[in-house]
Description:
alpha/beta; Rossmann fold; two-stranded antiparallel ribbon
Amino acid sequence: METADVLIIIDMQKGVCHYEDQTISHFEHIVSRINDRISAYASEEKPVIFIQHTDEYLEKGTEKWEVLSELNQNQSEYFIEKKHPNAFYQTELKDVLDKLDAKILEICGAETQYCVDSTVKFAHGLGYSIIMEKGLHTSWDNEWMQAEETAQFYEMIWKDTFVTFI
């Protein structure tokens, strides 16, 4: 499967993917496929960037803030903290991507309608090409849609305008 210049994994943190006794939609599938993508990037010696959201709930240094232990983090030398849904807003992400001379990004992670969507659209606005594996982003069910419907809805919006699906 095709790879980009960089793999960006958004908010796959313990406190984002687990809440009380519940787990985010398609958890095992998402974790397995993200690990497959990490392996693909490692085999091509391409960088992997983990984005970690920080706020009052996801306090830096706490267990909730940590990247999921199920994900292979050994392949990554980049961990970027953010305080806004857009991973570029007041972070060093663009500087890191410039240093890596990245033009094409692969984005995956959580939550579809918040941090993934914000980052996809902002990256597009900055001129990056974005690729994504269908369904390699996740969310929680809400009062309007099931998580799977949310994913499909956003994929319809992103397709051919913001994202090329692989």
